[in-house]
Amino acid sequence: MPWNELDAEEVQRHLRRQVDLSTRLASFPESVVGLDVSYEKATNRVCAAAVVIELESLAVTDMATVVGEVTFPYVPGLLAFREAPILLEALQGLTNEPEVLVCDGYGIAHPRRFGLACHLGVLTGLPSFGVAKTSFVADFVDPGPRRGAGSPLREGGETLGRAVRTQDGVKPVFVSVGHRIGLDQACDITLKLCPRYRIPEATRQADIASRRMLRTASWPGG
What is the pLDDT of residue 222? Predict the structure, then answer.
């Protein structure tokens, strides 16, 4: 039976109860897994990539890609129903269990406090957070101009994440926790992953890998 928006929103509300916002990482991770999905224009074809980045060197140490087709329409706030299934397939292709998932999207900075990073975190049980390129639901004051400056993402008096300046003078990114990680920890990892570029190296490499595979994949039926 195909999903509809009301069903999906109810699933989000149900799974939201399983989000753990109290647990913190016991120590700084040695590696993270960046996740991203690329779409072929005018079709339902997609490619998901899971890329392991060693935090000390920022080297890619493992990678898995999966091609497929999405069956859920694009609806703001319901991105996980398009992307989570194929991202979970990509994660299964990695050699070792990830320490932390870094998503190109949102965690609790979401209308129902259950963005893609929360969805994947709950389904896998892994620490997860999202780093988005635009703010979705929360208000923020533009952080200072230097790398490392930040300001809270707030809605209705609730702090949902942080706008973080990852490079001097460039637009901030928007960090929100998904599951089993603290906001300070997520922001520290984000800055560690951004020595040269605005977006984290983990999701940047996942974007590169998924786009490359999408261009070269062989599809059934030609």
Answer: 54
